[in-house]
Amino acid sequence: MTVSQAERIARALDSFRIELPSWGFSNTGTRFGKYLQPAAALTIDEKFSDAAEVHQLTGVCPTLALHVLWDLPNGAADVERIRSLAARHGIAPGSINPNLFEDQHYKFGSFGNPDSSVRARAVGHARDSVAIARHLSSRDIVLWFADGSNYPGTANIRQRKRWFEENLRTLHADVDAHQRLLVEYKPFEPAFYHTDIADWGMALAFARAAGPRARVLVDTGHHYQSQNIEQIVAWLLAEGMLGGFHFNDRRYADDDLTLGSIDPYQVFRIFHEILFFESETGTRADIAYMIDQSHNLKGKIEAMIQTVVHAQELYARAALVDHNVLAAAQARCELVRAESVLRDAFSTDVRPAIAEWRRGRGLPADPLEAFRHSGYLERITALRSGRTSATSSYA
Ligand code: LRH
Ligand code: MN
């Protein structure tokens, strides 16, 4: 590892921040059930506490994504409580996620529901979420819609598209100059015939239709098997419409497994496209890096620390790509040289340099080991055991 490589890694890590999902600390499962963990967070206080533990050990997770129904069940009335928890735990409220899928009214959709009173209800909840974000000084409102249909002929796809554009424009009118709407796409689940925002192109069209404060959010688990995700990222960067990521990994569908656990080279290629764009344009891409995972079997805090550490490693490796050498090889169609520039960076063991970077900032060289010796898990297990956890809702 040359000095300049260590410096490049340090510079990259100094600016890399990743947001934790509150729901990653609570009991989650699949349609086949939930395996409850005694130390799982049930209350928003516990979710902030666990996030603070991860931030204290890694130094790079200063914000917590909140899901409105799960974390602010009383809506705006919970804002003061969240603010005091954020102050107490030293973790700022992050992106705000309206919930437009659990309420029984949304059986046939929310923004795309044929029933105008249900559409109004959905827009109302989304507008409340924008207001909550303002009160919490949160910048991003993440819009994921479960809307779609299960059988051919049962939905007017073009009519629903018009309702979405109308409602997104209405919502965008509430968004102030400091806020953004991040439109998240997903090809299927829970709808299994059509999904109203099924891919990046539809999300891009809707973000543009909504207004200038809207961008596209890429959830890495929301792609068909053979889709080239980093090409989508490159396109959205070139269009100036990439707002953020929900990182996780998958073997089959939206498995929400831990980042890089199945295909670390995929995450590296995504980070590479971003850093290549930034060095080429001399600009910093305005991207919210966030985690969206459900830790159904792994210890939740351990899995979260593992995810952050792995994200740092893959980001640091991508920072080792020499863009000038790469650009020259690309221009001369020197395929093997160009590919090797990426492979060499990906194959570099950056862990000693990252451990050094952590030591230099008073952080434990190995956050996972530090967590295992911190006694935090034992403390919360003793505190939280013996409680019954709701097995109904997702998180
Ligand atoms: C949908 C999704 C969305 C969240 C939910 C927890 O699959 O990715 O981002 O609201 O997971
Ligand atoms: Mn997501």
Q: What is the overall number of helices?
A: 15
- Unreliable stretches: none
Mean pLDDT: 96
Largest beta sheet, briefly? 5 strands, parallel
- Note the gap between the termini: 43 Å
What would the keywords be for this entry?
alpha/beta, three-stranded parallel β-sheet, 15 helices, five-stranded parallel β-sheet, globular, binds 6-deoxy-beta-L-fructofuranose, 395 residues
Task: Give a structural overview.
- With 395 residues, this protein is α/β, with parallel strands linked by helices.
- Helices cover 47% and strands 12% of the residues.
- It is built from 15 helices and twelve strands.
- A five-stranded parallel β-sheet has the order 6-8-10-11-12.
- Strand 2 and strand 3 form a beta hairpin.
- Helix 2 packs across helix 10, helix 5 packs parallel to helix 6 and helix 10 runs antiparallel to helix 14.
- The model has no long low-confidence stretch (mean pLDDT 96).
- The site of 6-deoxy-beta-L-fructofuranose has 9 residues, from loops.
- The site of manganese (II) ion (MN) has 5 residues, from loops.
Topology diagram in text:
Blueprint: H1 3-15, E1 20-21, E2 29-30, E3 33-34, H2 44-58, E4 63-67, H3 68-71, H4 79-89, E5 92-97, H5 116-135, E6 140-144, E7 148-149, H6 157-172, E8 180-184, E9 194-195, H7 200-210, E10 214-219, H8 229-238, E11 242-247, H9 264-281, E12 288-291, H10 300-318, H11 323-331, H12 335-346, H13 351-360, H14 367-374, H15 376-384
Parallel strand pairs: 1-4, 4-5, 6-8, 8-10, 10-11, 11-12
Antiparallel strand pairs: 2-3, 7-9
Helix pairs in contact: 1-10, 2-4, 2-10, 2-14, 5-6, 6-7, 8-9, 9-10, 10-14, 11-12
Bound molecules: 6-deoxy-beta-L-fructofuranose and manganese (II) ion.
6-deoxy-beta-L-fructofuranose is lined by residues 23, 97, 144, 184, 186, 219, 246, 254, 292.
